[in-house]
Amino acid sequence: MKIQRALISVSDKTGLVEFARELHRRGVEILSTGGTARALQAENIPTVEVSQFTGSPEIMDGRVKTLHPKIHGGLLFLRGNEEHEKQAKQHGIRPIDLVVVNLYPFEATIAKEDVTLPGAIEQIDIGGPSMIRSAAKNYQSVAVVTDPTDYPAVVEDMTENNGGTDLALRERLAIKAFATTASYDRAIAGFLNREQETSAAFRQDLPLELRLRYGENPHQQAELYGDFGSYFEKLQGKELSYNNILDISAAAGLITEFGKPTVAILKHTNPCGIGTDSDLREAWDKAFATDKQAPFGGIIVCNRPLTLALARSISEIFSEVIIAPEFDADARSLLSKKKNLRLMKLLKPLSESGRDARSVVGGLLVQDTDASDVPELEHKVVTERPPSKDEIEAMEFGWKVVKHVKSNAIVYAGKDRTLGIGAGQMSRIDSSRIAVWKAREAGLSLKGSAVCSDAFFPFPDGLIAAAEAGATCAIQPGGSVRDEEVIKAANDRGLAMVFTGFRHFRH
Description:
This protein has 18 helices and 20 strands.
C-alpha cells in the first residue's frame, strides 16, 4: 500500500523533522495541526493545515479540529470496496495512508505536584486517540505510528516496498497503537478514581517482555510482562528462569534498604545473611558467616561496584545470580569464567512507592508497597532500660532485614550483620528456635544481639527464649493483648525493648 498522504500530529517531537522530511522527499503529502504544523513549516517542510484539508476551522480552543468525516472517512474507508470508494468520491474524501500521532502528556501532567483537576482534564486527548483507533482498525490499508522509535522501521519498509508498507509492519503498529490508547485511558481512569476516592476497577497493561522456558516447575508455562529490563541488564550467563526473576526482585528490594556498603545472600526470596562494611569483601564474610550451607545455588547482591576481592570470595561457591550496580573490569573477567553464572547490573534504584498485585482465586489483591522507614527508636522504648547506641544500631539493622523475611520472621542481628534468621514458620517461637539453631550451627554467638520480630510476640515465651539465647534488646511492633506481660518479661531480664507501632508481615 503506497503512502500518498500522511497526517502528523504529535506532542513528542523527537525525530519529527527528519521523518517528515523523508516523507516529503518520497512525495508524501503531509497534513498537520497546530504546533506540529508550525514546527514543520519552520523547517520548510510543505504542510497542509487540517482545517484547509477539511474546509472546517478549528473550534472550541482547538478541542475540535480532526473530528471530521474527511479525516476519519479517509482513514476508515475500505480500499477496494466498491461502495466505500463510491461514497468517498461522492463526499470528497481522500485516503490518508499514514497517521503519526502521540498523545497529550497526560501522565506527565498528573505527575506534577501542583496539578489540578481542571488542568489534568485539559490534557485528556480526544482527537489523537480517535485517529489512532480509526487507523489501527483499518490496518489492512493504513499504517499508524504512535512511537517515534518506529520512524526508522517505517522508512525502511517504504524503501523495501516502493513507497508503501507491508501488512506485517502495519499489523504490529496497530497492536502497539491499541495498547497505547488502552494504557492512556487507564491512566486517566486511575487519576479520576483517585480524585473521586473510588476504586471502581484496577487495570494494568503490561507488554510481553520475555517468554520463559517454564515457570516455577518444568510443567508450567510462564512469561515475563512489564519493564523488568529497565531495572536490570543481564551481562552474562544462562537465560533467566521464573525463579531467578523472583529472587532478583527480592534481592533488589532488600539491598535498597541499606545506604552503607552491604552484601546480601538470598535463597528462595528469603535472606540467608547480610553484612555491612566499608570493605565489600568484609561485608561478604559477615553475610556468608550467617549460614554457610543455604547460599549454595543462591542469589548474591551488593549495593556498590563489585570488586575483584569480592569476586574471588564469591567464586568459591556456586551461585545462580550476582547483582551489583557495576562490576569492576577485573572482577568481571574472573566471573566470566563461570559461563552459566548470571551477572545482573542493577540499572536504577527501585521505587519506594507503588502498588503490589498478587493473584488469588478469581482476581487480584492489590496493596501499597511496604515502604515504611525505620522509626526513631529512641522514642519507642517501652522497657525500664533504654537501649545503648550499639543496640539501637543492631535493632535498626535487623528491622531492615526482617521486613524481607517470610512470616513468621525472626532475625538476630548485630549492628553490621545478621547472626541468625528464622523464616516462614507457623509458630513464632519455632522461627526463633530455628534462628538460634542456625546461629549455633554457624558458630556465631548471640550474646549482646538484637532480636527482631516482624509482628508482635503474642506470649512472653518468645522473648524469654531470645533472652536465654543471648539477646539483650528486642524490636517488635507491639499491639498484643499481652504486651504488658512481654514488657515485664523483658524488664525482669534486663532487656531493652522498642515497639515500632507497625508490622512487616510478608506472606
